[in-house]
Design brief:
Blueprint (H helix, E strand, L loop, with lengths): L1 H6 L4 E4 L5 E2 L3 H11 L3 E5 L3 E2 L4 H5 L9 H15 L10 E4 H6 L10 H11 L3 E4 L5 E3 L5 H21 L10 H11 L6 H19 L1
Parallel strand pairs: 3-6, 4-7
Antiparallel strand pairs: 1-5, 2-7, 3-5
Membrane topology: Multi-pass membrane protein
Subcellular location: Membrane
Protein name: Cellulose synthase catalytic subunit [UDP-forming]
């Protein structure tokens, strides 16, 4: 992506994973905010998957149980947005080139360059936003082993950010932003919140199905 920055000139950079397919209204729904707010560096939208992940395919309750993305792209990112702490998730987002130039492009120090890039942008005083409307869809991980490897990589990257660019330290962030980023760093270390979230929705479904 940093190489692409050197070969392009557009002020707004729209980023999708190679397996994501966007709707025609994506830019119509996102670009206007950059014209309205000159300090806005990033708009992130939810990741939506049209194929079932390994848990949805194999659990008895299937798609009736919300996957962990519903927690992150629901309560977590909406809360981040409230405190101006929305972070980049690697796809389905629009970023302002001027902001990236101040951070010397996308972060390369960690394997979660997306979240680290957003942290760097906000340390520079830029704001970010979350638009909670799915406007692109991609492929979920196909096998449990791949699913675990993916989550392990995200956990590793967040831990790297915690070690190398601790959001609780340094300048440029408000107290609320520091707490939001701390929550992101620890997201994969403490699964209790995700467990409670899934049980809240899955137990009534299972009870209804077997009673």
């Amino acid at each position: 992506m940093n190489n692409a920055l050197k070969k392009t000139k557009g002020e707004l950079i729209c980023i999708f994973d190679c397996d994501h397919v966007t709707t025609r209204v994506f830019l119509q729904a996102t670009v206007g905010a950059f014209l309205d707010d000159k300090d806005l560096a990033l708009i992130q939208t939810p990741h939506h998957f049209y194929s079932p992940d390994p848990f949805e395919r194999n659990l008895v309750s299937g798609r009736d149980v919300p996957h962990e993305g519903n927690l992150f792209y629901g309560a977590v990112q909406k809360g981040n947005d409230y405190w101006n702490a929305t972070f980049f998730c690697g796809s389905c987002a629009v970023i302002r080139r001027t902001a990236l130039e101040q951070t010397e492009g996308f972060a390369v120090e960690t394997v979660t360059e997306d979240a680290h890039t957003a942290l760097k942008l906000q340390r520079k005083g830029w704001s970010t936003a979350y638009l909670g409307i799915p406007m692109a869809a991609g492929l979920a991980t196909e096998r449990l082993s791949l699913h675990i490897v993916q989550r392990a990589r995200w956990a590793r990257g967040m831990t790297q950010i915690m070690r190398m660019d601790n959001p609780l330290l340094g300048s440029g962030l408000t107290f609320a932003q520091r707490l939001c980023y701390l929550n992101a760093m620890l997201h994969f270390q403490f699964p209790l919140a995700r467990f409670v979230f899934d049980c809240t929705f899955s137990l009534p479904v299972i009870w209804t199905r077997y009673n």
